[in-house]
Structure formats: C-alpha cells, structure tokens
Amino acid sequence: MTLGGRVFRPGRFFFMQTYRFIQKAGLKTRPPPSDRIAMTSPLSIPILRLSHAADLPLPSYQSEGAAGLDLMAALAAGETLVLQPMMRALVPTGLVFQIPQGYEGQVRPRSGLAVKSGITVLNAPGTVDADYRGEVKVALINLGAESFAIEHGMRIAQLVIAPVTLSVLVETAEVDSTARGSSGFGSTGTVTVK
Ligand SMILES: O=c1ccn([C@H]2C[C@H](O)[C@@H](COP(=O)(O)OP(=O)(O)OP(=O)(O)O)O2)c(=O)[nH]1
C-alpha cells in the first residue's frame, strides 16, 4: 500500500485496531485473524456406505465443538447383539473410510456407555490407518455387571480424525541424559501434598 508516496505496510496491530473500530461502530465483520486461526476448513473424507448401513445416516458431530463422529452399529435387519458381562464383540459399522494420507482415525469409547453400562472399546483408541479400505469395526467389551443389548443404529463409539506425525528412526549408540532418566511406571508416586 502506498500512502503519500511512501510505502506503508500495515501490520497485525493496524488490522486489530481497525477491526476493533469497526466492531465498536456496530458494523458486521468477519472474526479477527486470531479467531480465524481455529476455524480451519474441514477435511474432506470420502466414505462408502455398505448395504447393511444403507438405512443409517452418515456419522456426524453431535455438537458444534464435538471432536468425534459418532459411529453406529450396522447389524443385519432385526439382529440384536447381546454382550454378556466380560464378553467382547467386533461390531460392524458398515462404513469404509478413505482417510487422507497423513491422518488416522481413532476409534474411541463413548463416555456415557462406559459410565452407565461399562461398555468400552477394548483396543482404545483403535487405529484406522490411512491406507485401510475395509469396513471399520468397533471392538466393544462389556466391563459392566449386566448384559448389554446393541441394536442396529445404536451409537456405540466415536471416530476422531487426527494428524499423524510420520517419523524416521535414526539408530544411535547413546541417547542424551535427562533428569527423569529411566524412572517411570509410578516413580513420582501419587501423593500431591506432602
Ligand atoms: O478399532 C479398530 C482398529 C482397526 N481397524 C481396522 C483399520 C486398521 O487400519 C486395520 C488394522 O488395525 P491395526 O493396525 O490396529 O491392527 P493389527 O492388529 O496391527 O493388524 P494389521 O496387521 O492388519 O495391521 O483394522 C478397525 O476397523 N477398528
């Protein structure tokens, strides 16, 4: 931008001041840059619905800020899957995801099912690899004292899409030293106030 023959480069402060002025004046604006950082555009994920999930809606976020897409049990018509206490089952979702390279799907338990009925994901978080093209299934286990009936369409788990940091392992003869060293597995105890 040129002002009075001099080159003028407006910085972040200039934009924020201008934004606040417009806001005070009651004019409608887009959110300031700092707020917009969090509003990244959603990742597109191709998804294939298999025949046993044809009557089910696609997984969706249940609230504006939810992190997980609810996964539903896709059972055969009229089938009910009863999980006896301490029994496990691989529950089909009827969905094939094409997760983009650099991301993974994490199959996580739903806290409501866990707290109310002891139903959780046995391998939590289950990992759905970016190159997996099979049906996503949920390994549920009943850790409760009562049997639990899973019906077709029941929201049994949630899928969180997360970025994956790919690493290159570099073998070395020694690693650097730290204050913790090799202490772990409860070495700091559990008491907070001494
Ligand atoms: O809860 C899960 C976990 C995995 N999978 C699918 C997607 C994943 O990409 C594939 C393999 O999972 P994982 O790598 O955890 O299994 P593995 O036991 O290491 O098998 P593999 O040798 O096939 O990788 O199985 C699910 O559908 N649900």
TrEMBL record:
It catalyses: dUTP + H2O = dUMP + diphosphate + H(+). Keywords: Hydrolase, Magnesium, Metal-binding, Nucleotide metabolism. It holds the Pfam family dUTPase. Its EC number is 3.6.1.23. Residues 56-189 form the dUTPase-like domain. The keyword Metal-binding applies. Substrate binds at R110, S111, G112, N123, T127, V128, D129. Its cofactor is Mg(2+). Pathway: Pyrimidine metabolism; dUMP biosynthesis; dUMP from dCTP (dUTP route): step 2/2. HAMAP family: dUTPase_bact (MF_00116). PANTHER family: DEOXYURIDINE 5'-TRIPHOSPHATE NUCLEOTIDOHYDROLASE. This enzyme is involved in nucleotide metabolism: it produces dUMP, the immediate precursor of thymidine nucleotides and it decreases the intracellular concentration of dUTP so that uracil cannot be incorporated into DNA. Belongs to the dUTPase family. This is Deoxyuridine 5'-triphosphate nucleotidohydrolase. The lineage of its organism: Bacteria, Pseudomonadati, Pseudomonadota, Alphaproteobacteria, Hyphomicrobiales.
